[in-house]
Amino acid sequence: MPRRLALASLLLAAPLCAAEFPADTYTLDDCVRLALRNNAELQTAEQGITIAKQRVMEAAFLFLPEVGVQASATRYSARYPFALRPNFRSILLFPSNQDNIYSGQAYMSMPLYEGLQNVNTLNMSRAALKQAQSKYDAAKLDILYAVKKVFYQLLLAQELSSAADDSARKADDALKAFSGTRWERLEAQALASDVRAAQSESRHSMEVARLEFLKGLNKEFDAPVKVTGKLETAPAEVNIQKALIWATELRPELKSQTYKAQMDAIAVNLALGRRYPTVALGLDYELTDQSFPLKQNNWDATIGVKLPFAFDFWTQHTQRLAEQRQGEIARAELQDQVELEVRRAYLDMGYWQAEWPRREEELKTLQALVEEARQGAAQALESLRAQARLFGARQAYLKAVTEHILARARFERAVGHQLASE
Questions:
Q1: Given 13, 51, 309, 363, which is the most exposed site by the fewest CB atoms within 10 A?
Q2: Cα–Cα distance, 2 to 123 (Å, whole number)
Q3: What would the 3-class secondary structure string for the chain be?
Q4: Ramachandran region of residue 178, left (φ > 0), alpha (ψ -120 to 50) or beta?
Q5: Cis omega before residue 86 (within 30°)?
Q6: Among candidates 283, 165, 153, 284, which has minimal Cα distance to 210?
Q7: pLDDT tens digits, the chain, 422 residues: what are they?
Q8: Is 150 in contact with 211 (CB distance < 8 Å)?
């Protein structure tokens, strides 16, 4: 019985312990580091770079000769001459009073001229490596923007929840001290209810932002977390024409399309290379005998020329030209899309860059007026009205600051370049 009671007490205490478990605290740098380490898309892109590097090495090996050795031992019985299978070099065997034969061979072969196919294969693998690096850079930029977004949205939700709690507390104090007519009491109760509703909504928004934050960092959804930082921003000097040039030169997606265009052009050259002759060199040295030591030897040096007549040459050439044209169309479409992203992000950042200082001044003015009014004999109803207006102004200011931070992050993502603050 005592053991059962102890177990029951532990089970009852477990939820309390979980509720009191301290929340993990993250800064923006912590979030970036964790997201870059845990993101599956970035890890996949990183492995793509590794694969592309190995393919470049494979293409470079095509220029090296193939060298090898081969040995075989055969026991046979023959009534008439025959040859071994091609896997064993088709050695001719004749009737003999000895039933064993041994053979060893060293060989080397390499292409002397292959219609630039090996050169084009190497160039294509190098372009594919650059494309893989561009995909990795694009995935990294997406992660950085996504992390900033969920971080500052959660930070905004925390700030709004704290401001709502403070306003609700002051509204309750003012409502308790209120004494007035019935109509005034009705208005006071409505103002206090509005503040409490805003408090409830801010808490709900904070929970939603917390889930989005955990999703962005690939963490468990039931983990208690909070972020630390300041909702503050600074204006940035931006030239839209310079930004468009940056985007054209720095956006990884456009670079990837450029490398794709190079690969399409190389694919056309590879298709053309099929009509050119190929020249190869082969060297062989062979020892064959029916007993050791092996004394009979053969050697050869061969140069071979191969001229293909492919019936599907023009079909493949036409396919590669069509694929090259598809790439050009996709690149033009992507350029238009990137320009639209840059201009839209520029408009958003310009709007919030002009808006958040005005809202900050309005908030400071309201705060000064409230402090001035508190010096006199303020009525409870006027205090409730001021508290509701002050909370609305603070809410608008915090949202404007957050929107400017995110608009700036979107603009930096659109141009692929970090902006310097004024």
A1: 309
A2: 77
A3: CHHHHHHHHHHHHHHHHHHCCCCEEECHHHHHHHHHHHCHHHHHHHHHHHHHHHHHHHHHHCCCCEEEEEEEEEECCCCCCEECCHHHCCCEECCCCCCEEEEEEEEEEEEEECCCHHHHHHHHHHHHHHHHHHHHHHHHHHHHHHHHHHHHHHHHHHHHHHHHHHHHHHHHHHHHCCCCCHHHHHHHHHHHHHHHHHHHHHHHHHHHHHHHHHHHCCCCCCCCEEECCCCCCCCECCCHHHHHHHHHHHCHHHHHHHHHHHHHHHHHHHHHHCCCCEEEEEEEEEEEECCCCCCCEEEEEEEEEECCCCCCHHHHHHHHHHHHHHHHHHHHHHHHHHHHHHHHHHHHHHHHHHHHHHHHHHHHHHHHHHHHHHCCCCCHHHHHHHHHHHHHHHHHHHHHHHHHHHHHHHHHHHHCCCCCEC
A4: beta
A5: no
A6: 153
A7: 444 444 444 444 444 444 455 778 889 999 999 888 888 889 999 999 999 999 999 999 988 899 999 999 999 888 888 888 888 888 888 888 888 889 988 989 988 888 788 889 999 999 999 999 999 999 999 999 999 999 999 999 999 998 888 888 887 877 777 776 777 778 777 877 888 888 889 899 999 999 999 888 888 888 888 898 888 888 888 889 998 998 988 899 889 988 988 888 888 888 887 788 889 889 989 888 888 888 778 888 999 898 888 777 778 878 888 988 988 898 899 999 999 999 999 999 999 999 999 999 988 888 888 877 766 555 667 777 788 888 888 999 999 999 999 999 999 999 988 876 55
A8: no
Decide: 356 and 156 in contact? Cβ < 8 Å. no
Please report, as a single letter, which amino acid is at residue 113: Y
Residue 265 pairs in a beta bridge with: none
Quote the tokens at residue 353.
């860059």
Matching residue, tokens 């992000």: 345
- Strand-pairing partners, residue 66, are 109
The first and second tokens of residue 144, run together, are 């950085």
Q: Which amino acid is at 290?
A: Q
- Distance (Å, whole) CA 359 – CA 396: 7
| Phi, psi angles (nearest 5°) of residue 23 | -75, 145
